[in-house]
Amino acid sequence: MRKPSNEDLSSFVLTTLETYRNAREEVEQSWLECWAKYLNTPNTESLLKGSILKRVGDVEVEWRHKLTGAKAYEAVETVVGYLMAATFPNRDWFDLEPLEPYVEDNLTLARLIRKHITNKLDECGFKSQYAIFLRQLVITGTSVLALPWRNEETISHKRTRTDGPDGPLYLAEETLECCYDAPDIQVLDMFDCYVDPYSTDPNGSAFIRKVHKTKGELISLAKAGTYDIDPVDIIECTQGSGYDTSSSRQHLLSSFEGIETRTWSPADTLELIEFWGDYYDSDTGEYIKNCVITLLNDDVIGYEENPYWCGKPFVIGTYSRTGHTPYGFGGIQPILGLLHQLDIITNQRLDNLELYRDWE
How far apart are CA 207 and CA 209, in angstroms? Predict the structure, then answer.
């Protein structure tokens, strides 16, 4: 596969990212509102005031009572509970059937493979990650599950005995032992993931995600040959403190949960942009299918064919999809106006009750 120039690759990815980001501006605002209703914390009050004005009308006044109901949380957790019970009714929640079941060896092999897969999924905590995947799916309507395989080794010391001239000697030998060899299931934040807005198949379209790594991690990956960049350039690399629209909403969502994330240091953490899809140069007409491009700032530090024969290592799920867009809508998005109105009526009734009691 011929590699286009780094300038062409960088320009293509950044332009595509900007297109995807602008196309879902309204979708992200809806995600933020759904998360605010679900979390139901005091920090969400200012955002919900603007949402009430937009969805219900100019009925927001400074009441004495400012209660927000937990109906959104109740609805989301109820749906997640039903889906978890439907997916995992018992320990044998999936099965394998050989193509030739009448051969005894095939039946034995299928049982062994099923046992191996079950152990690996249990090792990576698949069920707990799947619950997080479903919760984001019900709230935002779209959720992404990453399926990389992680293999880690650790250094262990083994003491061996040898015979010396003055008696036995004990030597310590360092050996590498595998400490983790299983899928590394990850639920990606939807504010970090972008799907081609012109496609109707989210799993078959181009995909962009933002990846945050420390400089130490990047240096280790560069030395291992994963990224084409000099470790010295990583040490000297800096990124501005500004946030794009998606990042600003992502940090606002963290503040809803009482977590302040704006104090991160660009000197410690760097943001990468990964593009998974087809590259097309409109000037030359060059078209390359199924490639992976990684950017650090404007620099291309990775370019290769997709190393996975089965496609992208991501599963994009949608709760309810209309077919006009790859993004779905969640379980509480259609009733946001009713949820706001329920809070309004509840607070008005409480205010009227207190005023009536004071008048008496």
Answer: 7
Label residue 319 exposed, middle or buried (CB < 10 Å: 0-12, 13-18, 19+). buried
pTM for this predicted structure: 0.79
DSSP state string for 27-69? HHHHHHHHHHHHH--GGGHHHHHHHHHHHT-S-----S-----
Instruction: Enumerate residues 6+ apart whose C-beta is below 8 A from 277.
Output: 196, 205, 206, 207, 290, 291
Can you tell me the distance from the alpha carbon of 12 to that of 298, in angstroms, rounded to the nearest whole number? Answer: 11
Number of CB atoms found within 10 A of residue 258's CB: 10
Task: Please report the beta strands in 281-338, taking only residues with DSSP state E, as ranges in sequence order.
Answer: 287-296, 299-305, 314-318
Q: Which two tokens stand for residue 190?
A: 């939807």
Which distant-in-sequence residues (6+ apart) come within 8 Å of 166 by Cβ? none
pLDDT in tens, 88-138: 988 888 888 888 877 878 888 988 999 988 888 888 889 999 999 999 999
136: three-class secondary structure by DSSP? helix
- Measured CA to CA, the distance from residue 42 to residue 250 in angstroms comes to 17
Select from 340, 186, 256 the least CA-distant residue to 35. Answer: 256
Q: In this structure, what are the phi and psi dihedrals at residue 95, rounded to the nearest 5 degrees?
A: -145, 160
Q: Give the phi and the psi of residue 245 in degrees, each rounded to 5.
A: -60, -45
Alpha helices in 290-335 (DSSP H): none
Give the three-class secondary structure for 147.
Answer: coil
- H-assigned helices in 169-317: 215-223, 231-236, 245-256
Position 322 confidence tier, pLDDT thresholds 50, 70, 90: confident
